[in-house]
Amino acid sequence: MMFKTITIIGFGLIGSSLARKINDESLCEKLVCADVSHTVCDQVLELNLADEVTTDIGKSVEDADLVIIAVPVGVYEEIGEVISGSLKSGAIITDVGSVKEQAIKRLQPYLPADVSFVPSHPIAGTEKSGPEAGFANLFEGRWAIITPIDEGEDSDAVQKVASFWESCGAMVEMMTPKHHDRVLGITSHLPHLIAFSIVGTANDLEEDIKSEVIKYSAGGFRDFTRIAAGDPTMWRDIFLNNKEAVLDVLQRFNEDLTELQKAIRRDEGDKLLTFLVRPRKYAKLLLMPSKKSRLNQIVV
Ligand code: NAP
Fold this sequence. Notes:
- With 300 residues, the chain is of the alpha/beta class.
- Helices cover 49% and strands 13% of the residues.
- The two termini are 29 Å apart.
- The structure holds NADP nicotinamide-adenine-dinucleotide phosphate (NAP).
């Protein structure tokens, strides 16, 4: 057993996937589920995913040796406030939030000195939400990024969180929170922003064209709609909490798009071709056959 008691706060896609894996691998003696939603708690009971299920977030952490926060980043302060007085001395707190600098800023001030906070982020997910959407092998062969609060920190708590992710099937990488946010800004947050925007554009089209869009969406548009089907609250929190990196990469993207626009308008075929050739090296690297099975996942 890695931990005696684990509490997961927020039992959606990520929280419930972790619960399934924790149960399968017997990573703790007691698993506690805490979620504000009564509906979610009822589903968790029905699915038999935890030993204890509660909407009392503060009480849920009293015995926990490991607390996993799996809620949207926008409610981290709320969680911090509620759990701060109930945490056991020596407890390890980790999270799965898709942005890290703001996650730390929002949560850490509430945590007492005798607990260890080890922020993390599994690069795995789907566009679905809720406890029924989770599955045990979501993290299999995926990266779990740990962003220790003190740069280069290699404490016992960091090691334990790293081992935990490995037990969930993930490969662990360490980086600074700032670096994490910049990398995910381009690899995940910008693509999602573009997808939300394109699907929004299609939605605003006149009714007759809209039905054609749906009918012929087997092309690239289908992938955009899947990506844009992610939970709106979660995505709002990601964009607002990774503002700097998202705006920076969006600016660069807009500049490139303007260049493309100009090249098309001016019939500059060579320039256009240079642009279109550039992405091929990434496509070759990313779409190698061994990685094929991963293409059905969305990286958040
Ligand atoms: P989800 O399926 O929407 O689950 C989140 C759960 O947290 C919901 O049950 C929600 O209840 C609950 N919740 C909201 N506010 C709460 C509060 N104050 N106290 C307790 N529970 C609360 O979301 P998810 O996809 O698992 O994402 C959770 C976290 O993982 C986010 O920070 C996200 O950035 C990160 N993440 C997501 C993915 C992905 O692909 N989805 C991948 C990696 C990391 P309600 O339904 O009532 O709001």
